[in-house]
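Raw record, unedited: Transcriptional regulator, ROK family
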Amino acid sequence: MQTGTAPSTQLVRRVNASAMLKAMRGAGVVTGTELMAATGLSRATVISICDELVRLGWLQELENQRGAGDYVKGRPARRFVFDDSAASVIGIDIGATKITAIVADMAGTSLSQVTMPFRAYNVPADERADVLDKIAADALDKAGVSADSVLAVSVGVAAPVSRDGEVLTAQEFWKSFDVRRIVSERHGWHVLLENDANLAALAERWQGSAQGVDNLVVMLAGDRLGSGILESGRLLHGQLGGFGELGYLDNVDGVGDTYGIAHYATLWGREALDAGTETKLTALCGGDPEALTAEMVFRAAADGDHSALDVLNRVAHRMARAIGSISTLVNPELVVIAGAVAASANALIPTMEKQVPDFTFTPPRLATSALGDGIVSLGAIRHALDYVEEHALDLYPASLPKHVAAG
């Protein structure tokens, strides 16, 4: 009987510690009574966990001051403050053409962001690992924090990832590049792995236009389409990590594949040029269709160019079909278009809002993300912080010298 009780007690204690840290992050100085109100925990539990978190270096206890508003038998309240600088986390986005890393403190405040152009798919695994080392070192140096302060690193990849952080794909790239093992072996950091669109969803709900939204789809919609889905505030993975994968769009009439907004804006813009249509796109690309970019198409459309507007109407219609299909499946309250095209894609929203109801009986609200290119790395920060909160009693900030009294 006792062998089953101890783990259960420890699990409850970890859950309570996680709730305490969430309540304290960004709250400033708090008293025991305030923590009881925020978490629903008893005074004895609150004080016990605070004592342990102080010992581990997560909290600082301030000197008692009468008049603080919380007394026990005439004695002033014990007051605590969360130590934002106790440790740090890193969020990394491994994209097709670049890698972005963000270093943040325990409050989730970004201390640095570094982006490095890099086509990771065309180089050996060791060289990819060397580039990851360099960008992480640059980000830590820019943030002014040491490598031994890092408690967790979360890495976003463009592949299905299971709940256990395993890449579930037969792509040779990921078979030859075990990110978690390589980074962990080189630095001793705890490394998490997650799908890039899933991380984008975490970021959008944390700091973006989806704050407070529990039923959410975030679509990375640049060159390719990918989606991260939250239901009742929970990130969904499915049995093998494939929840939100959009390969089924190959079979959706009027969509046909998983290429994104930037791809088709460019492709259809070039078709307009090849047709000899009089358009501002000609001047923007210097008469060379191969030099045309999606950004140029959006720019010409903003200036009222008819060919560019026709292209964007086609893109919006295609996206309405894609959003209609996924909305029929998961019925989100909000769908957010994110990634490199998000700022420009705002021009597509009015047309999509009109057309989405033609493809689903449960049309969601539509929005574009304002989090920019760093959305996946930002979501990786949230992912790493969630891990640290959940394991707070097992992790020891570098601020505690040699983690003494850890056990």
